[in-house]
Amino acid sequence: MTIPRFYPLGTPGQAWGPAEVQQWRARQVRQRSYADEVLSAVEQMRAQWDVESYGEVVYADSVHSEERFPLMALRSRSWSSALPTVLVTGGVHGYETSGVHGALRFAAEHAAAYAGRVNLLMAPCVSPWAYERIQRWNFDALDPNRSFRADSPAQESAALMRLVAPLLGQFAAHIDLHETTDTDESEYRPAVAARDGKPFEPATIPDGFYLVDDTGNPQPAFQQAILQAVERITHIAPTDGEGGIIGTPLSARGVIEYDMVGWGLCAGITGARYTSTTEVYPDSPRATPEQCVAAQVAATCAALDFVIRAASA
Length: 313
Fold this sequence. Notes:
The protein is of the alpha/beta class. It is built from eight helices and ten strands.
């Protein structure tokens, strides 16, 4: 079978090697500053949070000079073993802007309301190289959100797992803030197919907010609490022509399920009872960038409110 060319790199039907990865990397252009937009915001929160570096991403090759990115986490100052612990992550995919800025806004403007009620650990921008390039993949053309597994080849994923490891068994919840964008269909999915030597199969992008639950540990009441809060800000994605979302059957309105651990997803790293991946749609004509950030904040607050209620029940 002849596979038509659908991406401007590689040979159809053949997986990429180092030369193609290098060509892909050369196409990536720095478009914004992690230091100016993320690190500076984190620095301003030292009065409210315990701020720590949990590692460093270091990238270089024969063409590109070395780049170093400190990975920063925020930790509640009022930490107590008597309180439920929640992990909040953003920017696992660096191009998903509202995940990063939703996490930062929550940390700056809303987290104080939860002091003494819940322990919070936040990693607002897991993938800084990709954040600067507005890319999904990291420097090595790897998807960090398929790389949360033992001996991860993705520096970003491995560093976050090391941060979380001492607290395993203590997490009540983890909410991972994401977006689904039009470039998923125009760039990312064709690139994945080309990289892996497979044919590109077109799909649809859902117009609205939805959630991903865990097939191994579904928590429908938790997901619905988040959806109800977000629906006050932006619309919930309708089903596609097959009655699902991005080719996956619904488990409930606005909710699909993935095998989080099996797929190496970020939301599967804690072993928490309550986990969710948010997905906003910033390219919708019915949503603004501000609404997308506000939706991520609302989702985080709703998740925490649910955990606190559950802990006191």
